[in-house]
Amino acid sequence: SKRYTITLLPGDGIGPEVISVAKNVLELAGSLEGIEFLFKDMPVGGAALDLTGIPLPEETLSIAKQSDAVLLGAIGGYKWDNNEKHLKPETGLLQLREGLKVFANLRPASVLPQLVDASTLKKEIAEGVDLMVVRELTGGIYFGKPRGFSTNENGEEIGFNTEVYASYEIDRIARIAFESAQKRRGKLCSVDKANVLEASMLWRRRVMAIASEYPDVELSHMYVDNAAMQLVRNPKQFDTIVTNNIFGDILSDEASMITGSIGMLPSASLGESGPGLFEPIHGSAPDIAGQDKANPLATVLSAAMLLRYGLGEEEAAQRIETAVLDALNRGFRTGDIYSAGNVCTFLVNFFIYILLP
Amino acid sequence: SKRYTITLLPGDGIGPEVISVAKNVLELAGSLEGIEFLFKDMPVGGAALDLTGIPLPEETLSIAKQSDAVLLGAIGGYKWDNNEKHLKPETGLLQLREGLKVFANLRPASVLPQLVDASTLKKEIAEGVDLMVVRELTGGIYFGKPRGFSTNENGEEIGFNTEVYASYEIDRIARIAFESAQKRRGKLCSVDKANVLEASMLWRRRVMAIASEYPDVELSHMYVDNAAMQLVRNPKQFDTIVTNNIFGDILSDEASMITGSIGMLPSASLGESGPGLFEPIHGSAPDIAGQDKANPLATVLSAAMLLRYGLGEEEAAQRIETAVLDALNRGFRTGDIYSAGNVCTFLVNFFIYILLP
Ligand SMILES: CC(C)[C@H](C(=O)O)[C@@H](O)C(=O)O
Ligand SMILES: CC(C)[C@H](C(=O)O)[C@@H](O)C(=O)O
Predict the structure, then answer these.
(1) How far is A255 from chain B (nearest CA, A)?
(2) Which pairing describes strands B69-74 and B35-41: parallel, antiparallel, or unpaired?
(3) B258 at interface of A, judged by CB pairs closer than 8 A
(4) Of these residues, B88, B193, B309, B336, which one is catalytic?
């Protein structure tokens, strides 16, 4: 039987409760496929701050690096909101992404027929939406230097950051995006602001250069402001979107809200080699933490992505995805996606039932 | 009788045709209020490139500066898309904003009861949306230095830009936003990425400092990724939004699409003193240029903003806004906002009829 080591990073808010569901689901799906998991629970974010004084303890990163895949719950909360930058929970997450070198963040956003009513968009606009945002995750303005505070020539305080991309960073994320488009409907839209920013001009130039390696993919380019509009106007026009770190942050959240079920959306972050990082798109939702209200499906589906992209265990991944669809088909819903006519209950036990052979 | 000099910058694509409608409307509304206009037509953007080789000729800027207000159509088109940066139509627009020092861009986005069906959002989500995005327009990553192309220590090409704000730039846009919120429903939401970016941390700190001057305004803060989601989830929660140049570019376009009638939305860009710049939110739409299909209402309503914010001519501004509502109430629509049951025709003549005493 196969054995994998998984680092679990529950984090803050609803993180621990959704991770505990996903862990059960992984164990069960694994046992049905002859896979054994060794789980290591490590602190990150606010939980790590409270425990150790820093948001990403060295031990957490080194255990994560040595494992086969990393599953993260959520980080952040009001309690740490006014912390200085190096003591923010978010800084721990950014250090983790950087430390694992996971430069490619895959964020699928699709509208399930069962949940089309949960979208705020009209039914005819929302139904059939099935897109993937490929976000560059370890470069751009998130990590660019110089950054910080200073004073200008008039003695005024300034705050500054650097948006910067090197050609190799663009090339490697472009290749991931072209490959993702190949496996989907063969269409890639690269989003930038090349009419204003030099970093975007290089982005567009490199994406066009890499396109010659993928003649079967239809490439288009769109300015970020227009993309933000088109996602609302007609999200079905998109298959795969590739964009930089900050535009990807904004557009993937917008896209996920368009599906109406942000509590359902997983993500995978991958590097050239080494363990991938898998996490739900949603935040730590401190206001509902510990009340058994959180939708665990985004984390459960992140565990499925972990099996597929992180371990190559396609059968186990599909087992989980099928169980999620079964649960929804039977009318099980958490409050965030509940509408009249559904059975409303916490989903964890139901999963375990569905997954039984 | 009062006399004002207005610089008209038709620009590219549908720019000239919508400017010509707005000019007629200004003349008529003015004549009914005892106001005379002297119009000066000047080239900008692609039109200026074709004529003079540069996107903002010196004469255009100096005439604009000497006038009482500037009305712009739209700039850009496929023809110039691959131009080098200093020869892009967009560069002319940025130089114009910088040259006129119009740092505050007001972008109202409201859903008119007559047009609620034009939104892709469900009726109960879209109806009653009435928000104003106050975008910083002459700072941030659009203008920050250093910027350009270079090579890194490994000889790889890099492209880079600087996101930078000085405290005075934040203070002055914050004051405009607080004042705008005071005149509206008294709520201001400042959007930033203060969990990651130093430029945003300073932004948040200064907005909080300025808040003490406006105790009657209720201030909140939101991260930009969350704001992009909340605009889709529940746009009615917003009254006034204030944000930086690039986030404002993205969010104001998203907000305008939520109204479903981007062909209807005006904008005003104001400085400390000197003429304001008024322009529709929409682009140059080269694919429908010259076909009498463009919706002129965004430019007509920009002319109303010009009268109100640029010249202090409230009565004439209201005359135009009332005429627009009358035209819509009578069922007149351009194709972009047309739905069954409406009279569909080009609106210019109808305006002139409505405005007659
Ligand atoms: C928490 C924050 C630092 C993070 C980001 O901006 O990347 C989050 O918004 C995300 O998208 O994963
Ligand atoms: C044309 C472009 C430079 C411009 C901008 O990014 O500011 C436009 O998108 C706008 O919002 O007015």
Answers:
(1) 8
(2) unpaired
(3) yes
(4) B193
8 Å CB contact of A198 and B159: yes
Residue-level pLDDT, tens digit, chain B, 357 residues = 799 999 999 999 999 999 999 999 999 999 999 999 999 999 999 999 999 999 999 999 999 999 999 999 999 999 998 899 999 999 999 999 999 999 999 999 999 998 999 999 999 999 999 999 999 999 999 999 999 999 999 999 999 999 999 999 999 999 999 999 999 999 999 999 999 999 999 999 999 999 999 999 999 999 999 999 999 999 999 999 999 999 999 999 999 999 988 889 999 999 999 999 999 999 999 999 998 889 999 999 999 999 999 999 999 999 999 989 888 888 888 888 877 777 766 666 566 666 655
B225 is catalytic: yes
**Ligand of minimum distance to the alpha carbon of A269:** 1
Answer yes or no: B50 catalytic.
Answer: no
Q: How far apart are CA A142 and CA A162, in angstroms?
A: 8
Q: Around Cβ A66, how many Cβ atoms within 10 Å? A: 12
Residue B95 CA: which ligand is closest? 2
Burial B97-114 (b: 16+ CB within 10 A, else e): bbbbebbbbbbbbbbbeb
The pair of structure tokens assigned to A59 is: 């031990």
Find residues 90-109 of chain B whose CB sits inside 8 Å of chain A: 90, 94
pTM: 0.95
CA distance A36 to chain B (A): 37
